[in-house]
Structure formats: C-alpha cells, structure tokens
Amino acid sequence: MSGEEEENAAELKIGEEFLKAKCLMNCEVSLILEHKYEQLQQTSDDPMNQVSQVFEKSLQYVKRFSRYKNPDAVRQVREAPSYFGVKDGWVTMDEFLKTRGRAQDDEAIEKMLNDLSLIKKFE
Hints:
The chain is an all-alpha fold.
C-alpha cells in the first residue's frame, strides 16, 4: 500500500503482510491464544488485568469450535492435504478437486475424511 492509503479492514484495505498470510484453523488459533494467555498469567499478579474482553471472547470462541486439541493432531491436520497432492493446504482444496475426475474426487475426499477421523479418534 502506498503511504497515502490508510489501512481499513472494513473496505478490505489491509497491509501487505496480510495479503501473503495463510489462514489458520480454529484449533491453531486456540493453541496460539492459550499460549499467550499462559504467558500473561506468568507475568502478572492479576492476569485478568492484562486480558481484554476481546481476547477472552476470542479464546472462548476458538476453544468451542476447535475440533482438535492436541498440538500433534493439529499439525497432522494441517499437513493432511499435502498427502493428497494439495500444495497450499485447505484453501486450495477446491482447485484440487476441480482438476480431478468425479470418481477420483469422491475417492480422495472419502480417504481424506477417514484419515481426519483417525486423527481425531487417536487424539
């Protein structure tokens, strides 16, 4: 962005670093926020003074909707698409499916879902 333009998320005017950023799953955000929360607890006598309401609500949200809790399981889920030839993770799954035949789509999706179920089962 040029120096004259101001960042504005409402108008999707965001900084360059966000244009190249990868999306995180709720379970990844949960791990990050939990780690930050633990750091805040260790550095303050009263950790609630340092935790904003937005931070607290965000942490509650991602914990509620995080399917995977174990860091190893989260890593396996993040890497799962690469086993099926998807280079950029879950975001490009649609492109991956468009390049294959319908029978291969169903088979690949079924295999991936089974693999994800196993990760969850053994978490």
